[in-house]
Amino acid sequence: MFGSIGMPELIIIFIIALVIFGPRKLPELGRSLGRSLTEFKRASNDLRSTLEEEIRVEDTPVAKPPKPKAADPAQVPGNTGTGA
Fold first, then answer.
1. How far apart are CA 30 and CA 40, in angstroms?
2. What does the UniProt keyword field contain (predicted)?
3. Whole-angstrom Cα distance, residue 34 to residue 42?
């Protein structure tokens, strides 16, 4: 989950945070960080789904209207078929 950060590194980070922020402020900081991560994940998932939907809409072929058939010269009104 944390990549190359192991347990010793996490303990050192926790101790530094405890010294900087104090024991009373640390739980509030953790909750705030958790909410921020949740909001970031939600926003990135919304962006991903929007992009996938847009790509899917662009890839969907548009139905072409049927071509009109050419009229048979014998069925054209006013054509006597004599050529004169």
1. 15
2. Membrane, Protein transport, Translocation, Transmembrane, Transmembrane helix, Transport
3. 12
Structure tokens at 71: 């009229």
Cα separation, 31 vs 39, whole angstroms: 12
Residue reference for tokens 């662009």 = 58
The owner of tokens 């809409």 is 57
* Rounded Cα–Cα distance for residues 43 and 54 (Å): 17
**Residue 80: how many other CB atoms lie within 10 Å:** 6
Closest by CA position to 33, among listed 13, 49, 48: 13
- Write the pLDDT tens digit of every residue in 25-58: 888 888 998 999 999 999 999 999 999 998 888 8
User: Coil, strand or helix: which one is 78?
Assistant: coil
pTM over 0.85: no
| CA 19 to each of CA 26, 27, 28, 43, 82: distance values in angstroms, whole numbers, following the listed order | 10, 13, 15, 32, 106
